[in-house]
Amino acid sequence: MTARIGSVWDSTQQVLAGRAGMLIPFAAIGFVLPSLLQILVLPQGGAAPGGNVSGLGLAITIFSLVLGVWAQLAIMALATHPATTTAEASRAGLHRFLPVLGLALAIGFAVAIAALILIVGLVAFGFDLTAAMAVNGDPTRMPPMPGGAAIFVTLYMLVALPLAVWLSARLMLTYAVVLNERLGLGAFRRSIALTRGMTWRLIGVTILFVIVMLVSVLAVQGVAGAVFRLAFGPDRLGLVLALTGLLGSLVSAAFMTLAYVFIARLYVATAGEQALRTEGSPSL
User: Which residue of 151, 171, 239, 267 is 20 to 30 Å from 54, comparing CA positions?
Assistant: First the structure.
């Protein structure tokens, strides 16, 4: 069943207007709280002496990821059916957290394999990887890339980037499927089936969304940074950066909530009778 993007967007707006009061707490806890923790607990970015990530920084990063996944699932649960309560959405996020984590690890493993292939190819074509790893952020120390390695990278990216864009569109509903249909790895195949015939439209929507979000976040941070510098003076740069980052996280949280509601409504529009049967059980 091919859905119309315009209809999905109208449905998304209705959910945002009708359930904003229920969505905001999940967005605040899952997307804004992690940034606030980083600012309050790890003002230096979580780096330990010597530039390594501290144990506390790693713990907060993991905790932030857990909150983010839970909030994502809870928001999609709220957006899938109007009868879902806040408590039910929270439970749905907790119950389906481990399956989603498993799928995320599978995606991460695939990305790691793709990166490993790139690295192996570079080394095979004569690129000095050891010297590249020792540049310490100084681009002038980067070793030259042999012609063969440059050709390999170009060809690899010409294949990998379009494939990644295609997969990002076709797998857009994966977590919504896990949430609503209790599938594991089969959620990948199910998402591809549900998005059949919509690839280019979903790619366009994704690109437009990313552009608008980045422009909005950068604009808010730019204006807020200038105002805070004038208000607090150049000697309070740390405070200025913290407040600017917090405002950026608020804008980002709003866009992320919008994205997850859209995905939930897209699932409902494409799954058809399956979605209706799922919605009949508000406990998720």
Answer: 239
CA 170 to chain centre: 15
pLDDT (tens digit per residue) in 18-56: 999 999 999 999 999 988 888 777 655 544 444 445 677
CB 284 within 8 A of CB 91: yes
* Residue whose structure tokens are 């200025």: 240
47 forms beta bridges with 53
Q: What's the rounded Cα separation, in Å, for the pair 59 and 64?
A: 8
Helix axes 55-80, 237-271, angle to 10 degrees: 40
Among 24, 4, 94, smallest CA distance to 261 is for 24
Q: Residues with Cβ < 8 Å from 60, sequence gap 6 or more?
A: 34, 37, 38, 41, 42, 46
Residues 217 and 247: their CA atoms lie apart, in Å, by 8
- Residue 16 and residue 261 in contact, taking contact as beta carbons nearer than 8 Å: yes
7 φ, ψ to 5°? -65, -40
pLDDT single digits (tens) 108-159: 999 999 999 999 988 888 887 777 777 766 677 777 878 888 899 999 999 9
- Count of C-beta atoms within a 10 Å radius of residue 147: 10
Other Cβ atoms within 10 Å of 120 Cβ, number: 11
Residue length of the chain: 284
Instruction: For residues 278 and 155, give the distance between their C-alpha atoms in angstroms, rounded to a whole number.
Output: 44
